[in-house]
Amino acid sequence: MTVADSKALGEAIDKIAEKHGGLDVLVNNAGITKDGLFLRMDDADFDVVIATNLKSAFVATRAAARYIMRSKSGRIIKTSAPFPVLQERRAGQLLGQQGWIAWPDQVGGQGTGGAKA
């Protein structure tokens, strides 16, 4: 399974939660590098970077939040590498990272047990 496959990722989280009687923690840590110079990056590479680095976090958080909110406990933790923000010319990572930086502020107050950066 690849985390870029939204349907498979959501189903995997559901299976894990059902098997273990719930879900206590989700750690979002997926990330890939496929780009270089902005002008040389094609749409397919950009799409796969964003699907893996940003959309998968959304899908996983949405799936996990159902169980965490139901149990009124648990945590959603996000991690990321600092290099995309520090290096120039990494268009896909930079855009994905910027969306990722704002993620805990958006999710934390929505009954998810608190998203932690």
Structure characterization notes:
This protein is mainly alpha-helical and 117 residues long. The chain has one domain: Rossmann fold (3-Layer(aba) Sandwich), CATH 3.40.50.720. It contains four helices and three strands, in the order H-E-H-E-H-H-E. Strands 1-2-3 form a three-stranded parallel sheet, with helices on one face. It is elongated, with a radius of gyration of 15 Å. The C terminus is likely disordered.
Write the layout of secondary structure elements.
Blueprint: H1 6-20, E1 25-28, H2 43-71, E2 75-78, H3 83-86, H4 91-107, E3 115-116
Parallel strand pairs: 1-2, 2-3
Helix pairs in contact: 1-2, 2-4
SSE order: HEHEHHE
What's the helical proportion of residues? 55-70%
- What integer value in Å does the Rg equal? 15 Å
User: How many strands, what sense, and barrel or not for the largest sheet?
Assistant: 3 strands, parallel
Mean pLDDT: 77
Task: Assess the beta-strand content as a share of residues.
Answer: 5-15%
How far is the N terminus from the C terminus?
25 Å
Task: Give the name of the CATH architecture.
Answer: 3-Layer(aba) Sandwich
Multimerization status: single chain
Based on DSSP secondary structure assignment, what is the total number of beta strands?
A: 3
Which class in CATH terms? Alpha Beta
Q: Which strand order do you get reading across the main beta sheet?
A: 1-2-3
Kindly report the name of the CATH homologous superfamily: NAD(P)-binding Rossmann-like Domain
| Shape label | elongated
- Domain unit count: 1
Secondary-structure content class: mainly alpha
Stated plainly, the CATH topology is called: Rossmann fold
